[in-house]
Design brief:
Elements (H helix, E strand, L loop, with lengths): L3 E7 L5 H17 L3 E7 H5 L1 H16 L4 H8 L2 H4 L8 H11 L3 E4 L8 H9 L5 E6 L19 E4 L2 H9 L7 E3 L6 H5 L4 H10 L8 E5 L9 H9 L5 E6 L4 H13 L5 E4 L5 H6 L3 E4 L3 H9 L4 E4 L6 H14 L2 E3 L2 H13 L1 H12 L9 H14 L12
Parallel strand pairs: 1-2, 1-3, 3-4, 4-5, 5-6, 7-8, 7-10, 8-9, 10-11, 11-12
């Protein structure tokens, strides 16, 4: 069988990049089975000690001191000069992967894995034997939109929103190569959709909560940066009207502390989980989500019609500011910088349910429907253009 080989470049700075890489791999198998082979490489971590330290520092800052990210972001932007035409850090490992795998498509889902990486792939594999594509998950442009996303020689540049696409074109991406294709979530996010009865059943049977209470989702990314303990007393004051879903990511200390808090405050209905593989279901069971401006969580919230309150404790990181700006400008979404800010919002919603409905309606105005298979087909077609295999595409969902 003629196979299409696609190399996906990602890194664990936060969880969104890896989530999109894995979603792409799952979609390829869902639609094309063994005709498309996807190899995911956490290229920064695996290729260089310096890069690995940088990734660790990024995640530490996000978890402990978000306000330092402005300086860190400015420093990382210098990679646009370092990798202008070639890969400087981790080149040996990247070349090894290219020679071993011989990809038909190099697909980057990370800002620091575009410039230099595409040029080197063409040099090692052959300019006529490999194509290059980028999926940029940012919601808008401006400060926080890394120049490292912009590699003008890219064959296909995919943006999440029209706003972000326009900014990419402004910064050097050819308009005819720039498209808008939505959120790139896993197939199960499109298959496991809860209607009202299923939502009520899931709340009761799976989460041990009530279907008649206002449900607030306190979310976090994979590394577990959160302010849950500060926000819970606000919800406790309204325990007769609301309940809470909590995830802690891979932060075991937070998970254990919150289990203890729940035991000491039985009047507030709580569902607590550590790292969750079912965020798409938890979002569907929620009336509002409190989260930082991570693109993955916010995309799921938008897709599943769950209004966002932005967690801006310790400041908003440059990359998060792009998400916050999109939702603030388009839906008048609010942010909180302390428990008092959160209290104002919850008090308003609990005393005036109509105010919540207004907030939710504004949020829904920026939502859009998408065909999740379209971008997969376009990327596979781009890879196929190198060796022209005849691929049989399965329907989705299966008929």
């Amino acid at each position: 069988m003629a196979k299409v080989r696609i190399l996906v470049l990602t890194s664990s700075t936060g969880g969104g990049h890896d989530a999109r890489a894995e979603a792409f791999a799952e979609w390829c198998f869902q639609l094309y089975r063994h005709a498309v082979d996807v190899r995911i490489e956490q290229m920064l971590e695996k290729s260089s000690v310096v890069n690995r330290v940088g990734v660790g520092l990024y995640n530490w800052i996000q978890k402990r001191m978000p306000f330092l990210h402005t300086a860190y972001y400015a420093f990382i932007e210098l990679l646009s000069l370092l990798n202008r035409n070639n890969v400087r850090l981790g080149q040996k490992y990247y070349i090894k992967v290219l020679k071993e795998y011989r990809p038909h498509l190099v697909f980057s889902v990370h800002d620091c894995l575009n410039r230099g990486y595409f040029q080197l792939a063409r040099k090692v594999v052959g300019a006529d034997k490999v194509r290059c594509a980028t999926y940029c998950g940012e919601f808008s442009g401006g400060w926080g939109y890394s120049i490292n996303w912009i590699e003008p020689t890219v064959d296909l540049y995919i943006s999440r929103t029209a706003t972000a696409r326009d900014y990419a074109v402004k910064k050097g991406i050819a308009p005819e190569r720039a498209i808008v294709r939505g959120h790139l979530m896993r197939p199960r996010s499109h298959l496991e959709v809860l209607d009202a009865p299923a939502r009520a059943k899931h709340l009761v049977d799976k989460l041990g909560l009530r279907p008649d209470l206002f449900t607030v989702f306190l979310a976090t990314g994979g590394n577990g940066a959160n302010n849950h303990a500060v926000l819970l007393p606000v919800l406790l004051r309204h325990a007769e009207r609301c309940q809470v879903i909590i995830i802690c990511g891979r932060n075991k200390d937070a998970y254990h502390e919150l289990l203890h808090w729940r035991a000491e405050n039985p009047e507030l209905n709580c569902y607590i989980e550590g790292y969750s593989e079912n965020v798409h279901l938890l979002v569907q069971c929620s009336d509002a989500i409190v989260t930082r401006g991570g693109t993955t969580s916010c995309a799921k919230a938008l897709h599943f019609r769950c209004p966002i309150v932005f967690n801006a404790f310790g400041g908003i990181m440059p990359q998060e500011s792009l998400t916050w700006k999109f939702f603030r400008n388009g839906a008048q979404s609010e942010k909180i910088q302390n428990a008092s800010d959160f209290e104002v919002i919850i008090d308003r919603w609990m005393t005036s349910p109509a105010s919540y409905e207004i907030y939710r309606e504004a949020f829904l105005t920026i939502r859009y429907e998408e065909d999740p298979t379209k971008v997969i087909d376009e990327l596979v077609d781009l890879a196929s253009s190198v060796n022209n295999p005849k691929l049989t595409r399965r329907p989705f969902p299966l008929e």
